[in-house]
Specification:
By secondary structure, this protein is mainly beta. It contains one helix and six strands. A hairpin with a 5-residue loop joins strand 1 and strand 2. The relative contact order is 0.20.
Length: 91
């Protein structure tokens, strides 16, 4: 499930069992949009969700910023422009 949030940030919820919302519908904070699942290569783990925040507008300056514990291999460095740390944006 992908939810368009404030500042054009896309909140992604992955590894879900079923989706309880309709495409292009408005959702309110706290509203159930899906149920937890254990799909794909996570079939042998407890039900859980993978959550991330993505921006369609590249944050180019993040290519040169130090990312704390996040130090991806050089070939994935470009992803820092689009994938944001949820801890920084949900306070």
């Amino acid at each position: 499930v992908f939810v368009l949030g404030p500042k054009w940030r896309i909140h992604e919820y992955l590894r879900l069992n079923s989706i309880t919302t309709k495409p292009f519908s408005f959702v309110k904070p706290g509203e159930q949009i899906a149920t937890l699942g254990k799909t794909g290569n996570a079939a042998n783990t407890p039900a859980h969700v993978h959550y991330g925040i993505v921006t369609p507008i590249p944050y180019i300056w993040r290519l040169w910023a130090k990312e704390g514990s996040c130090n991806p291999p050089k070939r994935f460095k470009w992803m820092l422009m689009f994938f944001l740390n949820p801890n920084d944006h949900l306070k």
